[in-house]
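To whoever picks this up:

The parser on our side crashed when reading a file containing two proteins. I've narrowed it down to the boundary between the first structure block and the second sequence. Both blocks are reproduced below exactly, byte for byte. First block:
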Amino acid sequence: MIRVGPGKFEIGECKYKHLFDGLAMLHRFNMSGGKVMYQSRFLRSRAYVEGLANNRIMYTEFGTSEYPDPCQNIFARFFARFLPPKMTDNDNINLWTFGDETYACTETNFIHHIYPETLGTGERVNISDHVPVHGAVAHNHTDPDGTSYGMGSTYYGRPTYKVIKVPPVVAASEESCALKRATIVGSLVGQYRVFPSYFHSFGMSENYFIFIEQPLLLNPFKLMTAKLRGVSFVDAIEWYPEVKTKFRLINRQTQQEVLTTYTADAFFVFHHINSYEDDGNLIIDVVGYNDPSIINRLDTQNNSSLSAIDQSSSPQARRYVVPIKSDSSELIEQRYPGALALLKNDGTIHCSPKILAETVLELPRINYEKCNGKQYKYVYGISQEGQNSYRSNLCKLDVESGETHMWQEDDVQAGEPIFVPTPDAVHEDDGVVLSSVIDYKPGHPDFLLILDGKTFTEVARAEIPCSVRLPVGIHGVYMK
């Protein structure tokens, strides 16, 4: 299992201000012969190398502005503020896999090829050199045949959102960089002139790509003047709660947008859980928030964790049902109790969600290999009970019954759970769940936790020497 996340929050006297900003660190758990080996290594991005060489933050991150060069005179420093911020390559959010290739990524146009065996940093790749996008989301999807899909945006002029297809490797002689084979297989023109919608992930069913256009908008005028004002990306995004969220669909066969307009009351989403088609309806399961206030609560004043949860906008598993071939709200209510889809006089369809469970849930993972784009039963995530740390718990949620199972231990921060199916598994939850856990109790080691995927009880843990501390991981992958 390989994970990536922020591993260093200071350079010299400069401090990163947001969880999404710390310098990227890769860490790996290698499980073989009943033993576990742990290793970690910083990603050698330009943000890392140049930052350490100059002893200051050199690139503007999500929530941190770059620091001015103290060696410049006052006039040079003043005029430097009028230059646009440099795009960071600090790929600390997730890992993409294209066949045998693995890349660390964030939400800009730069990704890094990494070597899973050594955690070494390879080539830095500019996505914009291969497909016409200015940045791409940190989550991709993969078909059973190995074809991968991502989603990116263009910001100049009217915003456009584009689906990126990366075909599988079929011959050893093919180009070494998977993105050299990438193409665009669908696009959506943004509904807001100039202002693009922020998004972190997208959905994919058998026949549709799902883009949630939420009213969290990037103000390009604020972004262009961010360096002048000494602020970052997060200061340029604006929330419009009076504007409806839209579900926008691209037909995977025709590569054209579905013309029906589907809306919902404004909500914020980082992560899709799963999407699938059922009897003329598209089921879209997401982790939804009432507003994006979670973004500001992820600053380093909250100890670089997701600890300061506002119960008025806590993350919950939500199910939206979008009628593709039927506009009958009565049929939806009967088949999916709690979910609504109402045909409005203007021809739009307004959707209201079913809350799958009252339990807080984030960083969702499913049995992807078996269930992505298909009807499913279980999702795993991090959770919370009472006033404990947001990452104290791990949760298994039955999306059909709403039943939950919890793993909990005091004063620990459990990372994103990764489900690994057993060979020749029969049931969806036949397998184990892996989570890297930071233990804050004095004298207690951090550890890799292994849970039974079915009973959600502890199978084993591999403890790391107390002299080594795990970084705050965000996302990761399991590799056979």
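<<boundary where parser fails>>
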Amino acid sequence: SSGINAEYGGREQWNKITNVYPCRTECSSSLKLLIDNWNVGTASWLRRVCYERSPISPTNMTYLLSATWHGFYPGYYGCFLSMSFFLLTSRKLRRVVRPLFLRSAPVKVFYDVLTTVRSGITTRC
């Protein structure tokens, strides 16, 4: 594989084999953004193979498959299924809370900084 992904606006994109976006991962303002930018190839594969095809609870099924992929150890199942719970909870919370902070630009910036710090603390503890 050459590494050339596609051309956009006459420019080649050399990101075909990129598997992590460090700055996007470290500065993500939500758990979803963190997951989308970490282990990019596997996340894309899991999305196509499991998430988009699962008739019931696609998020839980995807994390269950990911835990199985990592091995048959109880810690993996606990970790991945708790990540599923955290992701589903944060989605619902974001839908309710975020609109309250979109009234003005300074308040939105405050919300973005707050959620970025929260994501950093949550994933490092």
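After patching the parser it read the second block fine. The first strand starts at residue 6 and ends at 8. The first helix runs from residue 22 to 26.
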